[in-house]
Amino acid sequence: MQTLFFRALWGMTEGRNLEEKCAIAREAGYDGIEAAVDSFDPVELRETTSRHGLRLIAQVFPLTPSELRSALAKAREAGAMKAVSHSGRDRWPLAEGIAFLREALAIEREFGIPVGHETHRYRLFYAPWATAELLRAVPELCVTLDLSHWCVVCESLLDDMEDFTSLAIERAVHVHARVGHEEGPQVSDPSAPEYRRHLERHAQWWNAVRARHLAEGAAMMTVTPEFGPPGYMQTIPHTGQPVADNWTVNLWMRDWLKGRWGC
Hints:
Blueprint: E1 2-8, H1 18-27, E2 32-36, H2 42-51, E3 55-60, H3 65-78, E4 82-85, H4 94-111, E5 115-118, H5 128-137, E6 143-145, H6 148-154, H7 162-170, E7 172-177, H8 196-215, E8 220-225, H9 246-261
Parallel strand pairs: 1-2, 1-8, 2-3, 3-4, 4-5, 5-6, 6-7, 7-8
Helix pairs in contact: 2-3, 3-4, 4-5, 5-7, 7-8
């Protein structure tokens, strides 16, 4: 099975424009980029990624079915292979969320682009129990797995949430490889020994997604190391200086997984 690694343009300060960012990502050995399609001209995205031999995963942020339809139209025009969806709001009643996701699934089929609804705070999939209800109600729905968010919501490494995490892993079509902790969605540096326990816990979840892909005979698995910029990245008080380098941390995460998986 081929494992493809993507560079998120979120937080990437290297390069002045899309052309330069794609060149830098390609030079660093990434297989593609992950980008919010509403931030770019879709033709430019398609032509630039193609020119640099990169694949594209689109990020979309729909609050209505019509917004999803519009975003997936741009994603298709941009040549995206998948879409990561920040879907809905955490405060929606269950029935409203189910209705939205059923329409979303129909739109996904219409456009032929696999959509992973991200397990993300603020969104429909903000917590393990809420996600489980939605996934059970819409059995063909898939997720982008980012359990760093759930660590914050549950203030734990989810040791008592195995039923919920297993269901999300079964439905994962994409992974955001960011290491969270009990008090935040991002450790400062996953290579630091003080975060070894957190790294290994997240690796258990990512390994389970990989094992499922292999068991199903999948041709590929997609992963985006997604440590973010200041706001997510901790900063030094009074200076605003990040305590670690975003580019270096994401590259380390990718190479650690490549070494772990032998790919």
